[in-house]
Every structure is written in structure tokens, then in C-alpha cells.
Amino acid sequence: MNYWDLIKDAFWITLRNRYLWFFGFFAGVGGSSNFNFNFPRGGGGFDNNDFDRSGASVQFFGQLPFDDPVSGVGVAALIGIVLLGLLIFLVFVLLAVVSNGGLADSVVAIDRGTRRSFGSTWRAGTSRFWRVLGYYILFFLIGLALLIAIAAPLGLVIGAVFFGTEAAGARVVTVVLAVLVAIPLLIVVFVSLSIISQFALREIVVRGESVLAAVGGGLRIFRQNLGRSLLVWLIQIALIIVATITLLLAGAIVGLVLFVPTILLAVAEYTTAAVVAGIIAGLILLPIVIVAAAALGTFNHAYWTLAYLRISGTDVPSSRRVV
Question: Cα–Cα–Cα angle for 232, 237, 241, nearest 5°?
């Protein structure tokens, strides 16, 4: 497999079919292979127990006018905001599911010489909606199960040591060893799962497999092409790093230019004008960021789709491609 041709073909498909960027935005941000089970906790030194012990909570909540009609409006507004947020999240998930199926189907069709459009891509995504949704749910459950399978034994060992001894040295050594075991194990497991998930999605779209059969097909392709699969993944990581650095530098330059009036007005203490200028600059910068994310998401998706075609043996001669 020619990896340079793989990158080049994905680039030209992305550049020449810009209607795919709509789907690439949702497929990229809600990517099919991003399994992140880290739930960060905010740090800042605030302790709820200290707040409770000080009696401040009683004083604070005791002064809230819950019987005041204004507070009722505030609660209703808060509930409305939460419901609106859930609705936006649901719409985003639905669009991510449709985009992943439609984008993979259109990239395959374009690579095989068939012209596609926004409408045909949308229809391809909706026609595979339930299977792609099932794929998302299944891989989330698989990832969660693997995470528990790794974390639970290590947690039990750490807990047993902490329960059995108060020696600080033994506890520190146990935690360090657990981390040294967990990190490489998590990397191996979740990198493998990420690659298998990429192949499984294309098995659903290209071959029309069921969700369970697609998982088996993705595992088979990965196992039979381990070296090439890992190399494709490593190349993608390198491309993402280069693209991210480039976009950050370009974004910093553009952002600096756009926010120069805001900075000057703020220094001159024209606060209202500075706020207005900052909002305008943000509104100009936001579409640029969205378009860049959409293009990058489309490229990444096309890259994995073409890699699947070449690795699985369902590729077509380059002379027949129309991009």
C-alpha cells in the first residue's frame, strides 16, 4: 500500500468535495474512534466539607427567597436552559451518527468513480442510522468494560495494600507500579480498539454488515494486517499533530489581528467599545474555526475510509477514480 497516495487521495477528496465538510464537522467532533473515559475533576482547593463545617451553607441557603416569584422564574429558566442543552446534545448526536455513515459511503463512492452530492450523502447516512447508532453504543460498552477490567484488579491491589499496611513507602511503590502497568496497557487496548472501530464502521457501510458482524470483521482485518493498521494510525497521529500546530499558529495570528482593536480600546479604557469589538472579532473568528474543524474532520474520515478499502482488499484502480 502506498501511504503517500493514501494521504494525497484523502486530501483531494476533501478539497474537491466541500459539501462533505458539513458531515466532516460532526463526524470529526463526534468521531467514531474517540473513546474518552476520563472524567476530570476541577482543582482550585475548594472543599465542600469545609463549606459545610463553616456554617456558610446554612446561612447562604437560609437567605434564598424560595417563596419569591422571581426565584421561581429563575428556576424555570435554569430548567429551560438544561432542557435546551440536552436537546442540542441530542441533535448533535443524531447528526454525528448520520454523518459517519453518510461520509463513509460517499468517500467510497467517490473513490470508485461515482459522483455524489449533499443529498445522496445525507440519504446514505439516514439509511444506516440504526446500525451506526448500535455501533456507537456497542463500542462504548466494550470500551467501558475493558476500562473496568483493567482498573478493577489494579484498584483492588491498591486497596488491599492501603488496607493492609500504613507504610508510606509500600503505598507509594504500589501506586507507582499500578500506574506503570496501567498506562501501557490502556494505550495498547484502546489504540487497538480505536483502529478496530474504524474498520468496523466501514464494514457496516461498505459491506452492509450487522453491528456484531462488523465488530468481528474489524477485528479480523486488524489482526490480519496488524503492521499496516498500526502504521496507518501512526501516520494519522503525525498528520493530526502537524495540522493542529499549523491551525493553532494560523488561528493565533488571525485572532491577534482581529482582536487588536479590542486590545487598543481596552487599554484606552473604552470598556463598552472594547466589548463590542471583541464580540465582533469572535463572531468573525468562529466560522473560520468551524470550517477548519470541518475540513480536518472530513480528511480524517476519508483517510480511514480509503485505508480500509486498501487494507481490506476492496480498493479500485486509481485510473477509475473521479474525485
Answer: 150
Under 8 Å CB-to-CB from 292, ≥6 apart: which residues? 247, 251
**Alpha carbons 234 and 7: distance in angstroms, whole number:** 13
Phi, psi values for residue 177, rounded to 5°: -65, -40
Q: Which set of grid coordinates corresponds to residue 243? A: 495540522
Bigger pLDDT: 90 vs 322: 90
Q: Which grid coordinates belong to 272?
A: 463598552
Q: What confidence score (pLDDT) does residue 144 get?
A: 94
Give the model confidence (pLDDT) of 171-219 as tens digits. Answer: 888 889 989 999 999 999 999 999 999 999 999 999 999 999 999 999 9
Quote the pTM value.
Answer: 0.78
- Cα separation, 92 vs 18, in Å, equals 20
* Other C-beta atoms lying within 10 Å of the C-beta of residue 189: 16
| Cα–Cα nearest to 234, from 296, 191, 295, 297 | 191
Q: Are 285 and 258 in contact (CB under 8 A)?
A: yes
Query: In 3D, which of 267, 266, 290 has the Cα closest to residue 276?
Result: 266
Q: What share of the chain is helix, strand, coil (3-state, %, to 5)?
A: 80, 0, 20
Contact 100, 197 (CB under 8 A): no
Integer Cα distance of 61 and 40 in angstroms: 28
Give CA–CA dist 236/32, Å, rounded: 14
Question: Taking CA 286 as the corner, what is the angle to CA 7 and CA 98, rounded to the nearest 5 degrees?
Answer: 55
pLDDT at 78: 85
